Amino acid sequence: MNLLEVKNLQVHFPVKHGVLSRVKARVRAVDDVSLTVAAGETLGVVGESGCGKTTLGRAIVRLIEPTAGRIFFAGEEISRLRGSELRARRRKFQMIFQDPYGSLNPRMTVEQIIGEAIDIHKLAADAAARREKIAALLESVGLDAAQAGRYPHEFSGGQRQRIGIARALAVEPELIVCDEPVSALDVSVQAQIINLLQDLQQQRGLAYLFIAHDLAVVEHIGQRVLVMYLGKVVELAEAKVAIRAPKQVVVRSTRAVRSPKRVAGLKLPRCARSSRATGPRVIWPNENSPRSKAPRTRGTVKLGSSVSFARSTPSGAIRNFSEFSFRPRSPKSQLRASPAPSGKANYARLGIRL
Predict the structure, then answer these.
(1) Are residues 326 and 236 in the same domain?
(2) Cα 34 to Cα 19: distance, rounded to the nearest angstrom
(3) Average pLDDT per run of 10 along the chain, which is 354 residues long?
(4) What angle do CA 137, 104, 184 make, to 5 degrees?
(5) Does any domain span residue 138?
(6) 211 φ, ψ to 5°?
(7) What stretches of 95-174 show up as alpha helix (H) in DSSP?
(8) Number of H-type helices and E-type strands within the chain
(9) 208: left (phi over 0), alpha (psi -120 to 50) or beta
(10) Do residue 294 and residue 205 come from a single domain?
(11) Is 205 helix (H, G, I), strand (E, B) or coil?
């Protein structure tokens, strides 16, 4: 029996105009989508931006109310559940969000973020058991249990995504909807998160609905691939078949952009044919500009000088970088690449007086 079954799911958003906000049209974000996910399986969902992938995932976990269609989880229809009944069933399916920066409450510590779900579903007998469970969850995703008292802004993007994974695991789900969990992360961190998700799947028998743009990631982690275009399913096949021998131009064009090699039947855009990628640019302000005042940090910033930067936290000082010298060569680009969390973002922010 399938763990998840979706039948003819539709999600439409009204377009309103005028003083009376009358509905003039409807955006068919998800239009008649059907799919199944077996226990322990990973179903990849790919498609261009705006095709309805995220809306599909949110509708399945009932963060968005579907317009029509039926959703079955473990043989029980959940598309009509409300209130306490839905809350009780929602423990079995969770979601990992795309943005590791916006999905965590900045006013809450890591212990409060993970412990919130434990408290709602009453999964810990007392405070000591709650702390032990949170510590075990942090260690399972590769974080130190001593970091539970810190706030989200004290972590890198990859570490924040690990916190989001720990939050999803807190209620012991059977299905996790992964909404592009690695797209906002460094390349060096993406592999760590993918390997972590695979290890957790083997240990806990999880099923994934994995939404992504990177076809190599989907082929690596998924057994089957569902291709969406304009809210509809245009292809559903085994991962290797759908990606290496696709029937739809959606997947073929995505392969073309990822690799500069020619794909039969497609004319690659100029950006895909380029042999050299353009690195990020850092615009340095004039020393006489209003933003060139000394930052509120321990250390000084001066173009071409040595820089030391540290932040104070309740648990002590975090030294982001120390005795770091740089001299930008305008108007050329400055590219900084290194594993997270190495201080790249703080280096750039400090340079432009943020």
Answers:
(1) no
(2) 37
(3) 91 88 88 93 90 93 93 91 88 90 92 93 91 93 91 90 92 93 80 89 93 85 90 87 65 49 39 36 38 42 49 56 59 56 72 71
(4) 95
(5) yes
(6) -95, 130
(7) 110-120, 127-140, 157-169
(8) 11, 12
(9) beta
(10) no
(11) coil
Q: Does residue 276 lie in a domain region?
A: no
Name the pairing type of β-strands 175-179 and 93-96: parallel
Q: Do 132 and 170 touch, CB atoms closer than 8 A?
A: no
Write the CB contacts of 259 (distance below 8 Å, at least 6 apart in sequence): none
> Residue 254: how many CB atoms within 10 A of its CB?
21
CA distance 181 to 225: 17
Contact 149, 116 (CB under 8 A): no
Q: Which domain holds residue 310?
A: 290-351
DSSP reduced 3-state for 324? strand
Segments of the chain assigned E as strands: 4-17, 22-37, 42-46, 68-73, 76-77, 93-96, 175-179, 207-211, 224-229, 232-238, 306-313, 316-325
Residue 237 identity (one-letter amino acid): A
Total structural domains in the chain? 2
170 to each of 123, 134, 173, 177, 263, how far by Cα in Å?
9, 8, 8, 15, 44
Burial class (CB in 10 A: 0-12, 13-18, 19+), 164: buried
Between CA 36 and CA 43 the distance in angstroms is: 8
Same domain, 25 and 133: yes
Would you say residue 304 lies in a domain?
A: yes
Q: Is the pTM of this model over 0.85?
A: no
Q: Output the domain CATH number for residue 60.
A: 3.40.50.300
Residues 189 and 303 in one domain: no
Residue 169, class by beta-carbon neighbours within 10 Å (0-12 exposed, 13-18 middle, 19+ buried)?
buried
Using the 3D structure, point to which of 260, 282, 298 is the last residue of a domain.
260
Are 48 and 97 within one domain? yes
